[in-house]
Every structure is written in structure tokens, then in C-alpha cells.
Amino acid sequence: MAVVARAQDAAAADRGGVYARLHAADRHPLAPLGPGELDALADAAWWSGRVDESVAARLRAHAGYVAAHDPRGAGRAAWWLAAEYRRLGRPAVAAGWLHRARHHLEGRPDCPEQCLLAWSDVADAEEHHAPAAALAAARRMTRLAARSGDPGLLALARQAASSVLLAQGPAHRAEALALLDEAMRAVIAGELSDLSTGRLYDLALGECVHAAELARAGQWTEAAMAWCAGLPGNPFRGPCRIHHVEVLDLLGEWARAEDEARLVCREVLPDALGTAAAAAYAVGEIQRRQGRRAEAARSYAHAHELGRVPQPGLALLRLAQGRPDTALAGLRLALDCQTDPAHDVLGRARLLAALVETHLALGDPAAALAAADGLAALDPAEEVPLLTAMAAGARGAVTLAHGPLRRALALWLELRVPYEAARTRMRLGGAERAAARAAFARLGAVAA
Questions:
Q1: What is the pLDDT of residue 4?
Q2: CA dist., res. 241 & res. 361, Å (int)
Q3: Percent of the chain beyond pLDDT 70?
Q4: Taking residues 163-181, what's their average pLDDT?
Q5: According to the model, what pLDDT value does residue 26 have?
């Protein structure tokens, strides 16, 4: 159909126009769109923020592929439907579509669609805490992607393998980060499609934040935001922006971080509510540290409504309100319920650091020291500056020894994390307190 061909040719420059042309073509009573054209309509609708229309078009595309006896097309459409229903918070429906995708592709030769199934196998193995199976699936995905000749799939396979290796502990960190760097090199060079670029920015930035790789996260979030700015209506804008917020928050650019977090809430699509939850939590963290306690409580409650466990922020708020018992209960529950501690090392480190503070407030230095030891065990070789700074600061808070506190301060200053540097200076006391108070004043933070 000529109108569809023209619409697809214009895709990179005019996504809204692409959707309009395909949508108009779909309404033609004498020339209905075929399954490939419906796939294109589903893509255009998604890029235009019309999630429901995207799913509806993909459902019709799947039916068309089945009627045309095209198992690869049907398998691909079923896989995308599984991915979309999962993002929409409908896991049972997603599981059904993934099963259907496997049925369509069972026994078929190697192809890009088999690579997508291997990607799902990685996620499934990780969800079931089966690291060997996850790594085997990631390596299978890499082989299939290399054979397919699709650079986007190959970069995504490298990111998947990187994530699996990082979760297997510090011994695999160097190999994991090398794979991630290789995947992101293709992104930064502009070698990939917009879809692969957006997915990789989202996945890699989240991986960097969870792994406490602040330097990589800082560099790549700036690149991600520049890329988003060049694509109006980009559905990856919200996910990329929330990672940018997390970096800005650490660097003490709180006014900018809060403004961007509020933008996330306005930009987020129905299939990315987790991003909105993260934004609400980030706003709560800034409000708590600035002493805006009632506002922080409301932000944490909103994050919880959207599905985010608002810890350790809520526990630290309760601690500031003189309720250490409530803080301790919340932290213990969060640690017990942490669904993916191997992948979210920074999240666990923050929970343990808050646990140290809470035990100290309760007058239990032995328990505080045990929590500090648990924090140090996350990075035993002290290869990750952010984790090393947190561990040294926690041990110094318990022992009141100036050695660990001085080390923590040096690392916080090197990392340019002003709030934690100021808190460490307060613990050191003496002349450092004046510098701490000045830093708190610049941040608009209450002294801690």
C-alpha cells in the first residue's frame, strides 16, 4: 500500500505524522492493512503515546500473521504483546502471550525472534534466582543476535549478559562492565535504531545506578537526555529522566532534580508507572533532607500507592520524627522483601546504612556494627568508590573512629556528593562542622 510505504519512509522525522497516515489508512474500508502494516501502526501508536491503540493494533497483527501462516511474524507479535502486558501490570496475560510466542517459534531455525525468546529466558531465570540458567540464556541470546546481524539485538544481549554477571558478585564485575561498555559504545556512536537506543539507555542506566557506578551513570544520563531532546514525544523520556534525577540527587543538584522528577510524573505513560513511583520517591527524599517532613510523607505515600516500597526514606523520616522503633520495623521488612538484592546493590547498601543509623538511635551499637559489616561485605575488595564511602562512613559512625570517617569524607568529596560529605564532617566535629553547616545551607538541607 503506497500510503503505508510513504508513512514508514517518514518515520524517523515525523512520528506523529506516521501514526496519522497509518491510522487513516487503517480506516479505508476497501483496503484493510495487512499484518506487517498493523505492526507498523502498533509501533507508531506506541511512539505517539497511544498505548491502548498500540496493543489493539498488535493484537490484530498477530491474528493476521496466524491467518497468513507466518509463524515468525506471529511469534514476534506475541512476544511484543507479552512485553507490553507485563509493562501494563498484567503478568498473567503477559505469561499467556509469551507461551503463545514460544508455541509459534518452537522448532523454527535460528532467527531474531528466537533471540527475543532467549531474552525472556534471561529474565525468567533471574526472577527465579537461577544464575547459571540466566547466564546460559544470555550467552544463547548473544549467539543468536550475532547470527542475526542486528546490532541492536547484539547490544541488548551484551547488556543482558552484563546484568547477569553483575548479580553474580564482585568477582565478575570487571567482565560485566566491559560488556556494558561495549553495548553502550554502539548507543553513543548512534549505530542503533531508536527503539534499541531507548531500551539500552533505560536498562543500562538502571543497571549503573543499582550497581553504584556513579561515573558511568553520570556520563550516560547526560547523553540520554540529549538524545531524548531530539525526539519530541519520546516515550523513553520519562525512564531516562528518572535516572538523571537519581544522579542529580546524589550530586546535590536538588532543585533541578525535584523539577525533573515532577516532569517525569507528567510525561509517564500508562505502561511505565514504576517510573512515576520512582519519581515520587525521589521527590520525597529531597523533601525529607530539607526538613519538609509533611510533604515528604505525602510523596512517600504516593510512591507506595504506585507500587514502590518507600524505603529507606520513610524509615529515616520516622527516625527524624523520634520514632526509631517504627523505622526499624520498616527497614527489616524492606530488607526481607527486597526482591532483587543481587541486582540492586546500591538499594541494599542504602537500607543497611539506614539500619546502622536506626540501631545507633536505639542505643544498640552491636547491632549497628553488624549492619555496617553487612554493608562492607557488599564490596569486600573496595572496588566501588560509592559503596566504599558508604561502608567507611557507617563504620565510622559506629566506632567514632576518625580513620574511617576521614576516608569516607575523601571519597564523598572525590565523588562530588555534597550532602553525605557534610554529614561525615558533622560526625568528625571540630573545624569540619563549619564546612558542614555551609554545605547544608547551600543545599537547603537540615543539619544531620
A1: 39
A2: 35
A3: 96
A4: 95
A5: 84
For residue 400, is pLDDT > 70?
Answer: yes
Distance, CA of 60 to CA of 63 (rounded, Å): 5
| Helices and strands, counts by H and E, the chain | 24, 0
Say what the pLDDT of residue 6 is: 37
Q: How far is CA 185 from CA 24, 182, 244, 335, in A?
A: 39, 5, 19, 35
**Got the DSSP string for 175-225?**
HHHHHHHHHHHHHHTT-S-HHHHHHHHHHHHHHHHHTT-HHHHHHHHHHHH
* 336 pLDDT above the threshold of 50: yes
DSSP secondary structure letter of residue 379:
S
CA distance linking residue 286 with residue 255, whole number of Å: 9
Residue 224's contacts (CB-CB under 8 Å, 6 or more residues apart) are 201, 205, 236, 240, 243, 244
CA–CA dist 70, 137 (Å, integer): 25
Angle at 128 between CA 125 and CA 131, to 5 degrees: 50
Inter-helix orientation angle 402-415/385-399, to 10°? 150
Report DSSP letters for 394-430, one per residue.
HHHHHH--HHHHHHHHHHHHHHT-HHHHHHHHHHH-T
Displacement of CA 5 from its chain's centroid (Å):
35
Report field, pTM of the whole predicted structure over 0.85: yes
Sign of torsion, CA 267 122 197 114? negative
Grid cell listed for 172: 565478575
Distance CA 194, CA 224 (A): 12
Q: Retrieve residue 193's grid coordinates.
A: 535504531
- CA dist 198 and 89 (Å) reads 20
For 143, the grid coordinates are 549467539
Q: pLDDT at residue 5 above 70?
A: no
CA of residue 348 relative to chain centroid, distance: 15
Task: Locate 129 and state its grid cell.
Answer: 534466582
Cα distance between residue 157 and residue 199, in whole Å: 12
Taking alpha carbons only, the member of 90, 102, 34, 24 closest to residue 62 is 34
Report how far residue 87's alpha carbon sits from residue 196's, in angstroms, rounded to the nearest whole number. 17
Q: Which residue has the higher pLDDT, 265 or 190?
A: 190
Cα–Cα dist 14/382, whole Å: 48
Specify whether the backbone of 94 is left (phi greater than 0), alpha (psi in -120 to 50) or beta. Answer: alpha
Vertex 180 angle, CA 179 and 182, to 5° = 65
Write the pLDDT tens digit of every residue in 337-393: 887 778 899 999 999 999 999 999 999 999 999 999 999 999 999 999 999 999 999
pLDDT of residue 11: 46
**Which residues, in sequence order, are CB contacts of 420 under 8 Å at separation 6+?**
389, 390, 393, 408, 412
